[in-house]
Amino acid sequence: MRRVYMDNNATTRTREEVISAMLPYFGEIYGNASSIHGFGRAARVAVNDARALVAGLLGAASIEEIIFTAGGTEADNLAIKGAAHALKSKGNHIITSAIEHQAVLNTCKFLEKEGYKVSYIGVDEYGIIKLDELKEAITDKTILITVMHANNEVGTIEPIEEIGKMAKERGIYFHTDAVQTVGKLPIDLKKMNIDLLSMSGHKLYGPKGIGALYIRKGTKITPQMLGGHHEMGKRAGTENVPGIVGLGKACEIAGKELEAEGEKLTGLRDYFYKGMTAKMEDVRLNGHPEKRLPNTLNVGFKYLEGESIILNLDMEGVGVSTGSACTSGSLEPSHVLNAMGVDAAEIQGSVRFSLGRDNTKEDVDYALSVLPPIIKRLRDMSPLYEKPRKNPTLH
Predict the structure, then answer these.
(1) 251: annotated active-site residue
(2) Is 280:234 a contact under the CB 8 Å cutoff?
(3) What pLDDT score does 390 carry?
(4) Is 328 domain-assigned?
(5) Distance (Å, rounded) from C-alpha 13 to C-alpha 247?
(6) Are residues 173 and 192 in the same domain?
(7) What pLDDT score does 394 carry?
(8) Which CATH number is 305's domain given?
(9) Rounded to an integer, what distance in angstroms lies between the CA atom of residue 37 and that of residue 355?
(10) Counting runs of H as helices and runs of E as strands, what totals does the chain give?
(11) Is position 103 within any domain?
(12) Which of 45, 179, 263, 371 could form a disulfide with 72 if both were Cys (CB 3.0 to 4.6 A apart)?
């Protein structure tokens, strides 16, 4: 049976070049990067080289603006809690969107319990944040705006340049969760007026358990992990040297391949959706038709449950998801699609196909060969689906 992985927004396969770069730091170069002897200095050189590669991909002004974390979730927590705690004497109001990843939403809810006020801005039918609503939400107590660069479920790209400009004009910190966009979309930190940016290694063919937070020079952050003076005093704990090296290598490769990879994935994504609509009825595209990640295709299949589709595709060797991997174990409907105004019944029948560098046209053709029979079989069993009559009786 052919095996086709189409869940790259959940995680990606670590590239061979990345694994090769990491291997020496599990064995021969094993020093603690904070030690001053030769063993430690060798590790420190590797960490700083990787920091430079991450800074290079993002276009950071210096390597000191890159802080390594255990992943995107920790980076989001450090950015939001860190900024909120550092600026609590200035204000207690935070603005975010209704479709953020749980790492942002749950962090904001945590801060609400500490007395902070949070405004959750709505989105339109395509998942684009309502800028007028955001502008109206700003007060003299607003200290942070945190809006994702692109949504992990539907792929919609947010107008963060406009948001960044709005924040800068009012002297408000702007954080963006760019976990799904680093390595997929060009990022201009200066043009976008980004003060804080979160990223994760395993979303761009690097290892799991490593991420980074960009902190613009001069941005105040209160550390959330206390201990030693690691990571310029922003994040305590012995550095994960192999992971850091892997992240650096993944960023180096991503920078070279970004444009070509984007064109390839956009072509495959559009070919996939065209094939779906040609072979099946009642197929709905979730997300913006154009302002969308090149690899992401979120589709609603009317009258069905997404979990049933996923399980049946899995039996055919095709791996997909219903949305965020971090919420796949939840029975709650997608908060993203709900915020977009998608009908509750249609939310349940939505599936996310997220393509990656390893996917080919043959993979898509295989998925298109097994998907229609699955949809037909499930609809034939669905009590919501009105089956067309073969021999209608005339009265």
Answers:
(1) no
(2) no
(3) 46
(4) yes
(5) 13
(6) yes
(7) 42
(8) 3.90.1150.10
(9) 45
(10) 11, 12
(11) yes
(12) 179
